[in-house]
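Researcher: I'm preparing a figure for a lab meeting and need a structural model of a single chain. I don't have an experimental structure, so a prediction will have to do for now. The sequence is pasted below. Please return the structure as tokens so I can convert it later.
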Amino acid sequence: MCHTMCLGTDSKHVKMNTGQKRRNKCSGSISGRTSFCQPNTRRDFLQLACAAMLGLPGILRAESLQPGNSYNKSVSRSSDNGQDKPNILVILTDDQGCGDYSAFGTTDIRTPNIDRLFHEGMTFQNFYANSCVCSPSRAALLTGCFPDRVGVPGVIREENPDQSEGWLSPKATLLPQVLKPAGYHTAIIGKWHLGLSSPNTPTARGFDFYHGFLGDMMDDYWTHLRHGYNFMRRNMDIIDPRGHATDVFTDWACEYLDERAKVKQPFFLYLAYNAPHDPIQPPPEWLEKVKQREPGILETRAKLVALIEHLDAGIGKVLNTLDRTGLAKNTLVIFTSDNGGNLMFGANNGPWRSGKGHMYEGGLRVAGAARWPDRIQPGSVTGRITLTMDIFPTVCDVAGIKSPADIDGVSFLPAFKGQNESTSEREYYFVRREGGVMYGGKTIEALRQGDWKLLQDSPFAPLELYNLRNDPKEVTDLGKKEMKVLRAMNAALRLHIQRGGSVPWQSPDVGRGLGIKR
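Model: Understood. Here is the structure written out token by token.
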């Protein structure tokens, strides 16, 4: 059945049409009128999800799609094992472009398991990573703060201190530290990338259990080494597992879930894959499958697609374990990526400009999904602008915990409930510090206020100003035309920079040698 509904932003009407033809590629426009149906079928859902993720004009919020019905159960509900508080699983992928999902209409890739989360839960059409590179986004997720406020404006490379652009502040409160007093068992499996040595290891910063890789990236998905170092750990024990890293992390996550299903205690699991970060090394059989299915595909693209599809299969195993153990119905699953995709390796960032490492939309926009059976309406969509750091207060709200007073994140639990939120006054600040000739140890930033976005994509380039409502692909720089807006936003940006600049981002041990275990 089709409906005609009123948009909350401009009082226009959009007719939702089940017969609307879907584009083959997720390129930012749909042929014909922008009209979609409620997702009564999987095909209808995919049409809606593609347009919603791309933020096309005329896409409705979840509140309009399912009025008063996005969240229809209380937060506390007993699971099969008798516990009352919900479990929480956060899945973070690494450098996955916001167009690299089959749910959004991209035809050369198959991600049926991640697609389940969009289909069975809520799609965030305006989800942003807190930075265009990984350490800052990870710090934001676990602290609920803008990353430079906790000492992580750039990538942490503790094994190369002269190239490290961050040091997680010992004063920062991490999510497991607030969850444990509420009775949660807390674990991280996979990539940490917030420090290699005390005090900045997962268990030292509050996690009950750690099984993963401490470093920034692996030089090989099978050896798991970085610069000859072995950063694989079980808690703080050095381990040497065998197999492709994606399979290793998947197996560990499934083992953890199997164990948690046996006890009456809620858990928080942060599952952080290092895929599809380079090196782009899919298992050979997965690459061959893609090449057979997609004749003529470029080698670079084929390898990335295969790596993502292999990752998707791993996430499918994790979701199946939730189903098999009976944990699924009492588990909130949140899914996103740490930043946009890397264009050098064939990533698809949809219609957005640029990619990883840059302050344009392609470097910051990421997919976002949340699934919570009986609480979140399947196939629902929210247009709420959401940042990685908003996961922290949301998890606190779901767990019935008061968030620390000084964080910057804002809970998106109201979106689950189908409530309209006014975020027009909120400032969205993004930062990256980097060394080398291109950056010189300086920062690049972006600030969004309403429809306006100010950015500096190089410390040696002028400021750029875009109106994202009229120019979502950031084609026309309005900096010279809208000087009043530019000056006001630049003043606001400087305040954020000054606030973050008060926090040290270098370890006091820099220059003394770290004594890292190999």
